[in-house]
Specification:
The protein is α/β, with parallel strands linked by helices. It contains 26 helices and 15 strands. The protein has two domains: about 260 residues, Collagenase (Catalytic Domain) (3-Layer(aba) Sandwich), CATH 3.40.390; about 280 residues, no CATH class. It is about 50% helix and about 10% strand. It has a four-stranded mixed β-sheet. Helix 8 packs parallel to helix 13, helix 10 packs across helix 12 and helix 22 crosses helix 24. The longest helix is centred in the N-terminal third of the chain and has 38 residues. The radius of gyration is 29 Å and the shape is globular.
């Protein structure tokens, strides 16, 4: 026992000595850093393992004394410094500290320094040194995507730098100016009251069920929560308005929200009583909603607006046959005591709740009304992660990248309400972070405008012009690829192949935020809301939200082409997808993707085709996704290297790279290198890298395409 105690004591003493030594070392290094920074002979390192890390700088005279001979290699080595292969040291423009950024490589986009030429696998041969230079605990960290959040932050910094309140010339600028004034003056309460009064003014004429239903539509058109949700989706014939189940907001939440906007005791009680009457409706008495009721809600969402001029006798509305929250509302109106008066109070409670939701988009809080905050938290938990009005937030996993989107994806994006967009991490938005808080809120409320901002920040005119030519070339090459081996035999019949080719020829590719009426942009101009200088930030937000809704509604009312659809994800996400049905398909590329390593205006043709061109080709090739048209036996042979659940993505990959080869600018080996670098990654050691879902996993994806390219010609010799 004594020996054990002595051993423990010895360990404790050893640890103490080590800690003391570490402390002395830390103090010594910090002292050296302070001295060299003062002398100007070193730089502080922002990503070192401790705060006092530094890197020596060498004067031109000292550099000459080193007698270096290979100046280009030495320049690259010194610029890389402490960074991983493929990265270069830079200085953060705001902190002044050293950071590691992606090496720009042009005209050839291939970066040889990140690969290990002696490796036996394609991903190691083209990416091994970068992979081996770091690790991750879970998931995948891909070479092509690791810095996407940093690029987004850089764009935000550019926007922030242009955000002076004296330069608020656009609607976005006016909102940001009003928002910063609100935060600086701590006037979110009065601003919320003004927003509530704007909504409330439309709710006093509620005496009949039809008027109550129209009021639900009016609130829904501002992205407020209620017993029904209005959204946009599509069928094979085109856009349709979707009326789906909303949320049930309890009486205590409405009571607290109404108290916060100054409603009297009677109104608060009536709102709570109506909510209780809705809850009391037995399941057995929940009836189907009539078509007349549905039409009343939709009519209330646009009545008195510019959209009315485009509304015909009827337009397509898709609705759920079972809508319990709305059915309870109707039942309570018809059968409960004082139905109309209490329903009006209930609707005013929804308006009050909506004004708090608008406030939370900016400040992240609900003015201390805890029941309202708890309700919003529950609504967010039940909905898909949202980035802005009508926009989803990708998870960053393979399942979100270069995939197919469908009517359900669009519906989820369109159903986003203000409650789902509460700012996180900025509770009580202080004056010091007002610019960042208001920028985020502007991004939420003005998604289409921020598409254009992102495009203008990332895509030069020269690059956009080159992409137009590339788009035409890629589409034509894929057309030929689908009709030639080895893809031709994928289809079970000539008719199936011809149908797929016709789908491709009808497909249009768009780039979010591209100039209107150009090859990659939409054709129609957004109809702006009517604003006044007295509105305040939160009323501007609500007016803009309704303008977004009316823009979407018009697409269904006027029968606009589905290829005019707004993006389903934030424009700065590094992503692309194909929106498709049996009647049409539309490819969307987000501006966040049109950056290195995917695109650069100075890439040579081979690099541009093999990178962003491959993405275009992959998205177009998703027209093959109707597996019922396949010869499944042949598919199993062609895709023998792939797991069955990845076959749809695999065909898009293989047909995509085959089309790029047909353009004649890149050979098999170089194309292998390009796709290997796009899909190489550091796989998590804790979970084995995770599951790619419908996509092959990191590294494997590039390896499989390289194997296919090797089979396609003799240019790539086997190892």
């Amino acid at each position: 026992m004594q020996q054990t105690e002595e051993g423990v004591l010895a360990v404790v003493i050893s640890i103490a000595v080590a800690l003391l030594g570490s402390l002395f070392s830390y103090v010594s290094v910090c002292a050296e850093q302070h001295a060299c920074l003062k002398a100007g002979t070193c730089y502080a390192l922002s990503n070192s393992s401790f705060r006092c890390g530094f890197k020596n700088s060498i004067t031109p005279a000292g550099w000459r004394l080193l007698n270096m001979t290979n100046q280009r290699l030495t320049l690259q080595t010194m610029n890389r410094g402490i960074c991983s292969p493929g990265l270069r040291q830079s200085v953060d423009p705001f902190s002044g500290e050293i950071e590691c950024v992606r090496k720009r490589s042009y005209p050839d986009a291939l970066i040889n320094e990140i690969g290990d030429p002696d490796a036996t696998s394609d991903h190691q041969r083209w990416c091994g040194k970068w992979i081996d230079a770091g690790n991750v605990v879970t998931g995948d960290l891909k070479w092509a995507f690791f810095d996407s959040a940093s690029v987004k932050a850089d764009v935000d910094d550019v926007i922030l730098a242009k955000g002076s309140g004296r330069l608020g010339t656009t609607d976005v600028g006016k909102f940001r100016t009003a928002c910063r004034s609100m935060v600086a003056s701590n006037s979110a309460g009065p601003a919320g009251q003004v927003a509530f009064e704007h909504l409330d003014a439309q709710l006093h004429a509620v005496f009949t069920l039809e008027q109550a239903l129209k009021a639900i539509g009016f609130l829904g058109s501002h992205f407020c929560d209620g017993p029904a949700t209005l959204a946009l989706t599509y069928q094979s014939s085109g856009f349709v308005v979707n009326l789906s189940t909303g949320v049930r907001i309890d009486g205590e939440t409405l009571r607290e929200a109404l108290y916060g906007v100054g409603a009297d005791h009677g109104v608060r009680d009536h709102a709570a009583e109506y909510a209780e009457a809705m809850e009391a409706v037995p399941v057995s008495e929940i009836d189907a909603i009539s078509n007349a009721d549905v039409r009343a809600i939709v009519r209330g969402s646009h009545e008195g607006t510019w959209v009315d001029a485009h509304v015909g006798a009827s337009f397509p509305i898709l609705r759920a046959m079972y809508n319990p929250s709305l059915a309870r509302f109707v039942r309570a109106f018809v059968h409960s005591e004082g139905g109309a008066a209490r329903a009006k109070a209930y609707l005013r409670g929804l308006a009050a709740y909506c004004s708090y939701a608008a406030r939370s988009v900016v400040t992240g809080e609900f003015g201390g009304v805890r029941k309202v905050e708890a309700t919003a938290r529950q609504i967010r938990a039940n909905n898909a992660p949202a980035a802005a009005l009508g926009r989803l937030r990708g998870s960053g996993l393979d399942v979100d990248r270069f995939a197919r989107a469908d009517a359900h994806t669009m519906l989820n994006a369109s159903k986003v309400t203000l409650s789902s967009l509460t700012a996180s991490g900025v509770a009580g938005a202080a004056r010091g972070n007002a610019r960042a808080s208001c920028l985020r809120a502007a991004r939420v409320a003005f998604p289409d405008e921020f598409d254009h901002i992102a495009f203008n920040a990332l895509v030069t005119k020269r690059l956009y012009d080159r992409l137009e030519t590339l788009n035409t070339d890629v589409k034509n090459a894929l057309d030929a690829t689908l009709q030639a081996e080895p893809i031709r035999s994928l289809f079970a019949s000539n008719a199936n192949r011809d149908f797929t080719v016709s789908m491709l020829r009808q497909t249009r590719l768009r780039i979010a935020g591209a100039p209107r009426n150009t090859w990659g942009g939409v054709s129609r101009t957004f109809t702006r809301p009517v604003l006044t200088s007295e509105d305040g930030a939160l009323l501007i937000l609500l007016k803009q939200a309704r303008a977004v809704y009316l823009d979407r509604l018009y697409k269904a009312v006027a029968g606009v082409s589905v290829c005019e659809h707004p993006p389903l994800y934030d424009a700065l996400e590094r992503n692309a997808y194909l929106l498709m049905s049996s009647g049409f398909s539309c490819a969307m590329v987000l501006p966040g993707l049109i950056v290195p390593p995917f695109a650069d205006e100075r890439y040579d043709d081979a690099s541009l085709q093999s990178r962003v061109g491959y993405v275009m080709s992959h998205e177009y090739a998703h027209v093959t996704a109707f597996t019922e048209l396949w010869n499944l036996d042949y598919a199993d042979t062609l895709l023998a290297d792939y797991q069955p659940e990845t076959h749809i993505e695999a065909v898009a990959d293989l047909a995509g790279v085959e089309a790029i080869l047909r353009l004649g600018k890149v050979d098999n080996e170089s194309l292998c290198g390009h796709v290997s670098q796009l899909w190489c990654g550091r796989r998590g050691w804790l979970d084995g890298g995770g599951d790619g879902g419908s996509h092959p996993r990191a590294n494997e994806r590039g390896d499989r395409m390289c194997a296919f390219l090797r089979r396609q010609g003799a240019v790539l010799a086997p190892f």
